[in-house]
Amino acid sequence: MNFKVKIYLLTLVSFLAFACKQKTHFGDKTLLVSENGRYLTTGDGKPFFWLGDTAWLLFGRLNRAEANTYLEDRKQKGFNVIQVMLLHEVPSRNVYLDSSVVRADVSKPMLTAGNNPKDSLAYDYWDHVDYIVDVAAEKGLYMALVPVWGTNVKEKKVNKTQAKAYAEFLAKRYKDRWNIIWLNGGDIKGSEGMDVWNTIGETLRANDPNHLITFHPRGRTASSQWFQQAKWCDFDMIQSGHRRYDQDTSKKEKLHFGEDNWRYIESDYKLKPTKPTIDGEPSYEDIPQGLHDTTQPRWTDADVRRYGYWSVFAGAFGYTYGHNSVMQMYKKTDLKPAYGPRDQWITALNAPGAKQMQFLKKLILSQSYFDRVPDQTLVAGKNGEKYDRVIATRGEEFALLYTYNGKNFSVQLGKTDGDDVKASWFNPRDGKYTAIGEFENKGIKAFYPPGEPQNGNDWVLVLEKI
Predict the structure, then answer these.
(1) Strand, helix or coil at 172?
(2) Which contiguous run of DSSP H or E holds residue 163?
(3) What is the topology classification, in CATH, of domain 26-365?
């Protein structure tokens, strides 16, 4: 065999191998971990900034028309991931009164022949899930699915054998849909039902190798505490939770950072193996601080912005927003709503924070992506604590510094390329820029955010190479 034939055959084999690999995935819509292990990319190598919304009870609470309204709204507001439970309770029923499983056994999904929405006997619980997943796909939205909410495992309603059969059912049913992400767990510590969570994770991975998997942990904990070494877990997730600094109940935990969600991201960022990390549940807009006492102050759009910019600038690959009314799809006819929702879900779709999240996504995507790193050395002098903290991130040719309350701060220039930099203020409330000027890229320079210093007068200082 001559040299040219050998080269031809090697090229052909390589092409076929690549083609086969691509065929098992979903082309440009595939989600992958970036080469540096910090971010997500689509199959064509483009950045994927996760902008999630928590719609936990979507499958159970909304009918087909309502689900379409919700998904279209989130698409228009720039969200690209919807976090939702498949089973909130075991057993459970949806808005059409279809049961999810047989006799409270997750290993026995309640299935009927056919899936005709006009035939109530043929259209079952899982057909409704399929419908919503497929509508989301039409709108370019990924569905981050929680197989079964954590309380069900904690209450011993799901054992290892049932979990394995159920995870096999889910993997086989959804492995060919491109817009699936798996959120194992569900507001629970990994140590509570560890054997079940590992069984679900391992079974999903074995039967569905082409979708990403993570673990949604309890408030003020991180999935990395239990699953950093787990081969089924592709990326880390924290839940920074809904309590104020003075309401913190996590002091007995390995990590206890209060509202400083950036500290959880910073902690994950140092771990090996390197995995992308994200705050998958910060304080929801319009939920009482501390959750259960509805007389407490409510978290606002300023708070959800703070959690977003803090975590992303600290190294997260995206951010998940939530609203008290939307996450539970609250309607005034509900007899026992949770956490005192005030607006119906259809109204709460247009809460200020929900409209503002797209500006964070646009800001990050406006700069080079995969070279971005957290870098607190950009902040010159002594940094503040809690709400006075300035969080900084940079790439080779840009730097971003976020202040929540608009207090003056100084920057150590020269951390990015270029002899000179162009400076501007970015407004997280409306996504608009205000030019500051051009400066030599060296030394320490003070910057003065617009407006009077106060919580919620947040700004991003943008420094770019000229």
Answers:
(1) helix
(2) helix 160-174
(3) TIM Barrel (3.20.20)
